[in-house]
Amino acid sequence: MRYFLKRIGFYVLTAWAAITINFFIPRLIPGDPVQSLITKARGMLSADAVQSLYVLFGLDKSDSLLTQYLKYWGQLFRGDLGISFTFFPSEVGEVIGQSLPWTLALVGITTVIGFFIGTALGTLAGWRRGSWIDALIPVTTFLSSIPYFWLGLIAIVLLTGPDSFFPASGGFDTGVVPGWDWDFIGSALQHGLLPAITILISSMSGWILSMRNMMVTVASEDYVTVAHAKGLSDARVMVKYAARNALLPNVSGFALSLGFIVGGTLLVEIVFSYPGVGFQLFQAVGTKDYPLMQGIFLIITLSVLAANFVADLAYMLLDPRTRREG
């Protein structure tokens, strides 16, 4: 119980620090986004209207930085992430809500599939060293070292074209109205297939390599030797004894991957012009959109913390030593 309470305290403190940094860092970026918004309006705004914009975006120069910080916390407690500069007058929550499902569908599914397939293949490769599966390790090592976006660029060059099944960009065909019908779903799956394959290949290779190395280490432990001496089947020893212990480091990595799903795979979404959170973040940085950047960073931070908390719970189930006091 003490371990559990310590972890909760750690996550609360980390969330406060992350939200504080999230508030101050965008304000250190040179430039004035409100003035950029005024420029777009061709200066046809009165002085009172300009002042109203500063107040609306929480950048009132008459308030000190500390006052802005306290107001920011008040907005968060009300669930108000502010109004986006880039998509004015849309609220940040609305903008993120439109792009988040795309990222969760693309990166979330590929991350989970890549973890399970990679872990299973890595378990077999480490347990049956010298087999044909183990011979694939040099290939997976090479693939894991290639960034997602490079695989994406290569895939676009080789697999897309006028007569190709794979679209080169976008989330769905032009002219298709988003909705829960087969035209939209089929178009979205077709556009998401190629970026999903590039993410899956790269991420799966990393899971294979890490799990294989841990299985090689664990296979020489005494408890594995004892399990063999008891006459247990090879498959049971591999799964119940070796893989269960070798899996622990991968659980932490998988938790971090789940947390960063929300942030999307920034460069892949840019390469494929995919309408996810990562692409929205890229646009927000380019336009110095403080509220949108803060909203996306906040969602990513809370997702990573929640995923790590789930990983701690998984550790408690997989490793009894974490449940003991002292």
From TrEMBL:
Keyword Transport: yes
Family named by the database record: Belongs to the binding-protein-dependent transport system permease family.
PROSITE patterns with a match to the protein in the record: ABC_TM1
Cross-referenced InterPro entries: MetI-like (IPR000515), MetI-like_sf (IPR035906)
PANTHER family given in the database record: OLIGOPEPTIDE TRANSPORT SYSTEM PERMEASE PROTEIN (PTHR43376:SF1)
Intracellular or extracellular location(s): Cell membrane; Membrane
This protein's record includes keyword Transport: yes
The protein, known as: ABC transporter permease
Domain of life per record: Bacteria
UniProt KW keywords: Membrane, Transmembrane, Transmembrane helix, Transport
Regions that span the bilayer: 9-29, 102-124, 136-159, 188-209, 246-272, 292-318
